[in-house]
Amino acid sequence: VTDANVAPLWLAQAQATCQAQGWVSNSVILPAGETAKTTDCLHAILAKADEFNLTRNDALIALGGGVVGDTVGLAAALYYRGCGFVQVPSTLLAMVDSSVGGKVAINGARVKNSIGAFYHPHAVLMDTDLLATLPRREWLAGMAEVAKYALIEHAALGGQPALALPLADPVLPLWPWLLQHASALQQPPSSTNPLLTPERLKALLLTCCALKAAVVMRDPDETGGQLDATGRIALNLGHTFGHAYEQTLGYGTLLHGEAVALGLRLAVATSLHLGLLADEEATTVQAGLTALGLGLAWPSLQEAPAETLVVAMSRDKKVRQGKVRLVLPSSPLGNLVIKDNVPSELLVTLFEAQGA
Ligand SMILES: NC(=O)c1ccc[n+]([C@@H]2O[C@H](COP(=O)([O-])OP(=O)(O)OC[C@H]3O[C@@H](n4cnc5c(N)ncnc54)[C@H](O)[C@@H]3O)[C@@H](O)[C@H]2O)c1
Questions:
Q1: Quick one: which atom of ligand 1 is closest to the CA of 94?
Q2: What is the C-alpha separation between 77 and 258, in angstroms, rounded?
Q3: Which tens digit of pLDDT belongs to each residue from 199-249?
Q4: Do residues 237 and 215 make contact, with C-beta atoms less than 8 angstroms apart?
Q5: For the segment 237-285, what is each residue's pLDDT rounded down to a tens digit?
Q6: Is cis: bond before 173, omega within 30 of 0?
Q7: Ligand 1 centre and the CA of 88: distance in Å?
Q8: b vs e for 287-319, b when ≥16 Cβ sit within 10 Å of the residue's Cβ?
Q9: CA-CA distance, 6 to 29, in Å (whole number)?
C-alpha cells in the first residue's frame, strides 16, 4: 500500500523486489497527504485485502511516509485481528520516527490519531535511496522530529548510560551535532551534500530509532512514566501544540513536521516563562531550530486564532481530568518535565507571539 506521489516513483521497483523473492504482490494506492488518514482509506485497504484473498499469514506492506504507515498499520491490526505488517518508510519523518514504536492510527473528526491501536511492524525496511526523490519541504519536516530526539536525548535514555551504537560515524550527542551541521542538514542527501554520506545518514536514522526504542521499551502501551516524563509521553514534546495547529488549520495545511517544529518552539517558550529553562538555553534552542530551517513564519498561522488553538489543545489525547498535560524541556537541555497546570492565558499569549 502506497500513496499517489510515491507510487509512480517507487512502487514498480518495490513490486519487482517482491517478485524477485517469489512473493505475489498486489497494490493499493491511497491519496497523498494527511487527509488520507480516514475511515474511507482504512476501509479501502481492508476491502482490497479481502478482494485479494489475503490471510492473516500474509503481510500488508506500507511503502510511504507516516500517513501510509499509520493507516496501513491500523488496517493490519484489524485484518483477521492482526496480519503481517511491514513498514518501508520513504520520508525522513517516517524513518526516524513513525515507522517504529507500534502506534498506528487514523484521524477522528475532531482529534488527530484518535482512532488507533498499538501494533508493531514485523519488520521495518529502510532504504535511504528512497530519500532521493523527497522534496526539501518534506525533508525539513522530518528534521523537526530529529530535533525533537535531540531535545529529549537525556530523558529518553532514562538514566541509562549514553547510547552505544556500533556506528562508524556517531552523531551523538545529537543536539550539538545538529547545531554544528545545521546548514548542511537543511538539504536532503545528495551527491552535492558531503555531510550526509550513507554512513552518516544511517547513523542519524539509527540514533533516532534507538532513542525512540529506549522509551518505547520502558512504556510500550503508554501507561507509565507520566509524571517524570520517562514514558512515551516524552516523545510528545511539541506535539500537543503541533496537533492544535493541524486540527485548527485543517489537516494538510501545515505538514505534520512543520506543526511539530512550531510546537517545539512553543514548548521552549513555555519553559522559559515557567523558569524551567534559562534565557541562554531557550535562545540557543530557538536559534538552533531556525538554523535547521525550522524557523519559518508560515502565513497560514494568522488563520488560527490563539483562543481556538488553546481549545484544540484541551481536546488532545493527553488531557487528564480536564487539564492539558504538557511535556516541556527543562534545564540542562535534554531533560523534560511534565506540567498540567499551565494557565490558558499564558498559552494564548505564547500562541499569539508565535503567529506574530
Ligand atoms: N505512528 C507514529 O509513531 C508517528 C510518529 C510521528 C508521526 N506520525 C504521523 O506521520 C504522519 C506524517 O508523516 P510524513 O511526514 O511522512 O507525511 P506523509 O506520509 O504525508 O508524506 C509526506 C509527503 O511526501 C510524499 N512522499 C513520501 N515519500 C516520498 C519520496 N520518497 N519521494 C517523494 N515524495 C514522497 C508523500 O506522498 C506525501 O505527500 C502524520 O500523520 C503523523 O501523525 C506517526
A1: 16
A2: 28
A3: 999 999 999 999 999 999 999 999 987 888 889 999 999 999 999 999 999
A4: no
A5: 999 999 999 999 998 899 999 999 999 999 999 999 999 999 999 999 9
A6: yes
A7: 12
A8: ebbebbbbeeebeebeebebebbbebbebbbbe
A9: 9
